[in-house]
Structures are given as structure tokens and as C-alpha cells.
Write a structure and sequence with these properties.
homodimer; alpha/beta; seven-stranded parallel sheet; four-stranded mixed sheet; 11 helices; 14 strands; 35% helix; globular; diaminopimelate dehydrogenase activity (chains A, B); EC 1.4.1.16 (chains A, B); Meso-DAP_DH_C (chains A, B)
Chain lengths: 325, 325
Amino acid sequence: MDNKIRIGIVGYGNLGHGTELAISQNPDIKLVAIFTRRDPNLLDSKPNVVHISQVLDFKDKIDVMILCGGSAKDLDEQGPMIVSHFNTVDSFDNHQRIPEYFEKINQSAKSSGKLGLISVGWDPGLFSLNKLLGISVLPHGKSYTFWGEGLSQGHSDAIKRIKGVKNGIQYTIPIREALDKVMNYENIDIPANEGHKRICYVCCEENADLARIENEIKTMPNYFYGYDTSVFFISEEELKQNHSKMPHGGLVVRTGTTGEGNKQKIEFNLTLDSNPEFTSSILVAYARAVFKLWQEGKTGAISVFDVPLGYLSPMSGEELRRNLL
Amino acid sequence: MDNKIRIGIVGYGNLGHGTELAISQNPDIKLVAIFTRRDPNLLDSKPNVVHISQVLDFKDKIDVMILCGGSAKDLDEQGPMIVSHFNTVDSFDNHQRIPEYFEKINQSAKSSGKLGLISVGWDPGLFSLNKLLGISVLPHGKSYTFWGEGLSQGHSDAIKRIKGVKNGIQYTIPIREALDKVMNYENIDIPANEGHKRICYVCCEENADLARIENEIKTMPNYFYGYDTSVFFISEEELKQNHSKMPHGGLVVRTGTTGEGNKQKIEFNLTLDSNPEFTSSILVAYARAVFKLWQEGKTGAISVFDVPLGYLSPMSGEELRRNLL
């Protein structure tokens, strides 16, 4: 018998695959089972892939479940259900609905005596921590968030829903001039559409009306309207060859003043080849924290704001102070 | 009666002054008294400046003491003494001696039922948190720290001790080529002297032997030997006019890989007009956390690794989740 933290993964899409890979980089953590709604026999016949209906058979075999449901809809349903039997970590990212989701997880977790950590990843997650840090340390100042350069799944999906489009990829790119102004302490307000431009690579059906498609993209409300948007039509081969990775990143900046107008700047910057693999790596580190906090008696719902960062590490408090402080 | 957190400051040098200014930016925190070893009447006759010998008169009037002792020697003596009567935050920054100092604070604080948070600031402090985050989220990777551009007090003091030197300022500057290699994921080892150069502005006594002084600086072990060091001799007026601010900053970078070699990068970057004012701003935010943790029953010594970041903010958990997650 070893002392490894035993993990279950719920959902076997990009995030679930990434979590499987991330666990293999952490010697103190082991993967027990991956739960899927599909027929596990149709997957790559890994012995640890199990149908979701068997989840309760693992009640005493898993310390923390990492919920990798691909959409807010999955988590809305799965989160409260799973946390009534297991400790959980999830990446719920519908910012506006976080308070409501938190309440649901909290009620379910309080009844079961488990711990549910919600909205882990980089945004929400590490970006949220840095926004909090900036505003707390420099109360007189301004906060900025830039996303990209990176692939936005939501915007890519929006393109794909247009008639005549076979496939599409959208990259969000910070506008250099806006970023420079922020970095130069110009203390301005930058609406999202003045801070970012959008570049779309679209692959269409034969004889599709390209002018109409380009127009539909550029005028789509909430997604593209008001943004500097470029549309490039490319072949399916080119799309597959050059745009199949999922890079992303971004930065959180706080500029502020202290004393007699001394300028101070805090910047947190991510550059990611693979957005889902990075998000999964964060989920796995936080799963370690959830297990430790639960062992100390913590139950209910929590967010990244409630987790001391030392709990993310396999090192003891003494090792951390000696090596990293 | 208000509900503000009541702060005392011990030590009225750069850091103490900065803390006084930082408190004024936080409406939920108030300054009760500043304790000094000097004769308070010789200071600028502020009514709240008190001689250190009166500190015990304030036992029920102060929630958290911010220890602004200018050197490890001050804190070594003051830390354990003050924490036997008050909750404390300090910026103990002698990295190698942190474990020993932690033990002393812990013993004293456990006996008194108080809470002592040690080694707060940006290095140690925010940089430590980011090193921990990097290594925990990207276990397969490499961590780097660069300091500057900024004024190093220790190196400036070392210059001043040389015979014939009246005054001196040393700036630490990251070497661009080394930084570029790190940012390009070259995964190299960079000893401190290959990552930084040193620029010294020195003002000497009349008829001093400049060649000897320059040589003594450049060959000084631990401080300058092995570094690309430039020495400029300037007048006292020029030193005062152009080099009296205390700018600093630096960055912590983690480069790593996930999955099949996808490159990931996390960067935390500070650019500071005033090093002591920024450090004090961090101390004040963490004083808020100390008070909350102590109210919850936490005693003994802790470090930044033990503090949930949500505790730095005056906002409630609910407000934080709604506004910043």
C-alpha cells in the first residue's frame, strides 16, 4: 500500500486527457479511474476507463474527483451529484453564474461532509488570484486583463454554426498599442473590443457564399461585432495542419501608485502551447490541496481564494520554507 | 467605535514610513502608533510616535504589529519579543536563516497565543509564492528569478564601506541575452552572475585613489567579483539628484512542458518606482490576513504559503467570488 492521493477523472475530452497526462508528472498522485458517459469499450480499451453509472462503486477508492465536463451544462448537473459522494475539483468557468453554482456545490458538500473546490484553471483561477493580489496590494490603481494570443473555443464554435462553414478556428490577439498604454501607466479604460482583435481561419463547403459568411462573422453580436476581425478562408488540409493545436495565454496587470505618486506595476503572464493541458495541470495541483484541506476537516464549497498556496505542493511546510521562501 | 483593524508600526525608517502611507490607502485599517528606539520628540512631533519602551501599554489597543526593523538584526531581537504580546507581520529576508527564525517566532507565538507571519514582501514573499506556483503546476520544468532593474541596498552599503568613498548606489540589471534565452525555453542553467550585471555610481572624497576604489569594488568577493560590473564616479549633487529614488523589481519565470512536449510558461513581473513603499503595501495587506486568521483561532508562526489569498482583501468571500473569480 502506498500513500498516493487517489484521483478519479469525470469526463474524457481534452481536459480529461490533459488531466491523465498531468497526473503522470506528479509522483505523489495516482489515477484510479476515468469515468465517461460513452461506452468505455468503444474507447481505447484502457482498463481504467469506466462507465459513469459505476461511479459509486469507487466511493472508498478515490480521494478526489477531477470534474472535466466540457461545458457548464455538464458541471451544473455532475458537480452537485458527484460532491455528494466525493471531494471534487472543477473548472466551472461561467463567471456570471459562479455564485449560484457555489451555493449548489456548498449545500451538497455540506450534507455529504465532502469538499468541493470550484472554478479552478487559469481564468477563472490563476488570473483571479492575481486580480485579487493586485487590488489588495495596490488599492489605488487599475486592473487589466488581456487574453491571447490564443484559440478561443467559444468563438470557433460560433463560426462553425454559420451555414456553409465546415470548420473554423478563431484566435484572440491583444492589441499591442492598448497593451503598451497599460504598461506605460496611462491609466485608461480599455473595453475588451479595444484591447483585442480577432483572426478567423474558416474552411467552407464547396460553392459557399464567402462574402455572406465573412459578413455574418464580422457582424455577429457579442462575439465579433465591434471587434477588429479578420477572416481568412483556407482549405481543410491547411486548417488541420496549421491550426490543430490549442495555444492560449494572456496577462493580468495591475498598475497603481503608492506614497507621493510612485508608480508600481504587477504583471502575471501566461504563454501556453496547450490550453487544456495547462488547465489540467492546475486542476491536479489543486486536487492535492483539496485532499489535504479535507483531511484537516474542511467541508463545503471553496474557491481558489480559500486555498493557501502551500497546499498545492507535495513538499512539507518546512521544506517549502527552506527551499522556496 | 469603528471596526477598523488597529495597526502598530515598529521601526520608523523607509519601511515604517512606507507602511504609514500604505495604511492611509486602506479604509478598513487604521494606524494607532509608531514605535521607535529614537527619542520621539526629536522626530516630527507626530502625536502617534511613541518610544518603544511603552509598547506594552498598547496591548489591548493594537490588533497587528507590523515590524519594520531595517535589518535582520532588529527582527531577530524584536520579532520574538513583540509576538509574545501582539500578532505580528515582518519582512525577515535572510533566506538562509528563515527556518531558524520561524522556529523562534513559533515558540514565542505559541506560548502567547498570538500569530506571527514572517518573511512578507516581494522577495521573500510574492516571488516565493510564484516559485511555489510554478513548480507545483509545472513539475517538469525550470524556475528562474531575475532581479532589477533596481537599487540594491546591500550592494550600495558594501560600496560605502570602501576607504575614500563618501556615498554610492548600486543598480542590479538583468542581462537581456540571458532573459531572452529563458523566455525562449532554452532550459539552461543561469548562475546569478550570468543573469545580472551591476552598475555603480560612486562619489568619493577629494583626492581619493579612484583606480584603487574601482578595483576594490570589482574584486569584492560575494558582492561584485565574477559580475560584469561598471563603476562611474559622479559628484555628490548628481548622486542626490539622479539616484535618490529606490526603484526595483524583477521577475520569476517557470518554463515547463506538459503532455507530448507542449511548452508552457508562467511569468510574474514587478516594476517598482519605490521598493520600500511596495513592500509596505504588501505588509499591510498581509496584516489584514493575520488579524482574520488569528480571529479564527490560528496561532504560532506562519509564512505566506499558509495564507489563503482571499484573506488579503477587505471583501467578503461572496464579494470576491462575484467580482474577481
